[in-house]
Amino acid sequence: MRPRVTRVVRWLASAALVGLGATGCPQLLDDDFTLTSGGGGADASSDGSGGQAGSDANADADPCASCTDKQTCCDGFCVETSSNPKNCGECGKGCPGTTCSSGQCTNTCALGFLDCDKNAFTGCEANSASDPENCGSCGAKCSFDQTCELGKCACPQGSDNCDGKLETGCETNLASDAANCGSCGKSCGPNQVCSAGKCACDTGFGDCNSDPNDGCEAKLAEDGKNCGSCGTSCGVNGACAGAKCGCLTGFLDCDASAGCESAIADPKSCGKCGSACSGATPNCDGTQCVAKCSANTTQCGNSCVETKTDPLHCGGCNQPVGSNQNCVAGKPTCLPGFGDCNTSANDGCEVDLTQDPQHCGSCTGNCKPGAVCSSSTCQCSASLPNDCGSECRECCSTADCTDSDPCTSSTCDVAGKCATSNCASGAVCCAQGCFECCVDGDCSGGKVCSGNQCVTPTCTAPEVLCAGKCVDPGSDPQNCGGCGVTCGAGRSCALGACTPAWAPVTASGAPSPRSHAASAALSGVGKLFVWGGLDAAGAELDSGAVYDVATDSWSALPNDTMTPTARSQASAVFCGDRVMVWGGQIGSGVLATGALYDPVQKAWGPVSTAGAPSARRAAHLVWTGSKVLVWGGTDGNQAPQAGTYLYDPSTDSWTNANPAGAPTPRNHSTVGYGGTDFLVYGGRAGNTNYAQTFRYRVSTDTWSALANGPTQRFAALGDWDGQYFVAWGGRKATGGAPTTYADGKRFDGGAWLGVAAGGPGARYAPDGQAGFATRVSNSVTLLVGGLSANDTPLTDGAIYNSSTNSWSPVASWPSGEHHLYGVYVFAGGELVVWGGQHNLVATATGERFRP
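User: That's the sequence. What structure does it adopt?
Assistant: Structure tokens below.
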């Protein structure tokens, strides 16, 4: 791919911007979580337990003792508040993506930030380096399973978007796809498989000529020149069978060298090595020394031979067979894998039918142009992998030339070669392809970039230009408050805000009332999956439905032979094309089974139980882009379960992750996933509360202990927001009255930093019971619900913006339902809360909130 260059400095409309507070803009890099500027430092807190919190040898040192008169100590760092956009004018007062000058936020976008919603009061709200909705430029959206890294859409390690289509996401597993092994378009050769991103010989084959085009051409079980391994020759008169060398019929191996140099009818080695004939029995019949040959053999010298089978006397004395031949019915006959294709009696069977493309498998086996002969079979080569009928080519059509770079145009020419060109003259490379413009700075002459085209603004206030059309952001429900901000079904736009914020979920076609159901967001398609749970009488269910957020409609799930058995407290996650349902409870027992649901085919499929985790309910399931990560959960006695497991839906197989360094089993931890790392904070086991933070890195299969979080607690609300791992609230249970918290912190990968006041009231969110936190956009987390100090279900919440370190309240959902053990899923840009229990009675009420 060629480097992508994007102009990122933008000017806002002339409106005063108010800084809302921020400390640090971290990015998740390949090597670790790294705070790139401002904020950070040693801030891991200890709760004084002496057992769970970390220690710091320099804890008593003043981190800001070296600050100059122009600097202020903020979160353990010396910063100049006159120009630091994360601490503009004072500590914790951040600018909304703009620069800071003389202690005031300016109207100029900071490097890397963009004003994509055309709303001056939200500032430069998009971080083009890490926002998957605006990756590198406004509107440059990454696929559902990609992250935005340094302004480019990136797939999880080991996968790629080789077909170049946004809707399929990172569809290719580079570790196992033989057509895209290690990178898009790198094909393996014949008789090869892709293992760990490298082409390797399939079982029983070897690449003995070191030619990548014919792959692994040697069949090691029967190749006399490469018997069992490359270069292991069975020698003259030798034969390979079952990958081991032996002798052709009628010969013995009587020395230390390869090959079978002695005939069994030779009187020097009669029937066995070292057995010589002499005296009264000078002749050898192939078994023993005899005085006279029998009537059914022919005497050739002192050898009694069967001329129908003896390769040295084939059809008569002293008539040896040629190269690569044996004697059958008194006639020289080719050994397996060889052919006498020139009909000359002088050179035996001169052609290796296992590798000769003009004589592949037989003397008449002529491979088509571009093909190679590998193990006696004509196959397309690694460099010309596509069978186009009459010949093998690099490509048969343009579809064979696609790659993961949206800014290259690939075509298949008449010669079957892929031709690739970059953006045409005058076009620029945006994250989703080549266009006239990505941002306003790509245009000149007073024009602005709208819909990736440079257009002259002609709209009359209050209308603004959105995708080439003039719209009123104060009343347009498709562009409410800014371009592309849709209000969704059942809402209108008033004064630039979607109203009402909470809208009801239709009851038409909804599943029957239930609690403890499995649920998942169908990422990229704006739908919600709901299945199983307990009905109003407490019986387990095996039914469910899919809810479409955009149309506010339900469609029932099928119940076929592969539908999982009825259960409650199962876990679910969307795997890019299918939903995995796993574990759960039936009666007093827990399950270690599951199934895959295909929303396109509307059918269920199996999940292997070989190597699966132990039976558990309410486990955490995360889609890594190629595998489902399973962690935590409890058994039937509420005991937390150990182990980290990875399920590969493409191979229907389980892997038990490396347990070294993993957290001890615990319930009600706060977890998050940032594209490469799975984070775990806090939790509880029995009467022990934890403040520990752990990271599991999928690419290296390793657990690591990180800095301790905000005091020992469990059931804090939180998630990874693209910049920070946020944790808020939670509870600590001791021998006395439990403590429920109304504070929190945010983790940049090295330290836990402060979170501004103004968050939701004290609450905690036990796994699967009440409360939900999710990333709704880059650096923005929505926290709703939970339980109060006296275990009353809560229905309000707040939105936290980590880039400005600020909160905004979320009103209670209008129904007043408790939604205890209900469904909480963020899909289609909205939080959907549905079902659960209200006053211990299962309901089918739902509501949805658009941030």
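Residues 1-59 have pLDDT under 50 and may be disordered.
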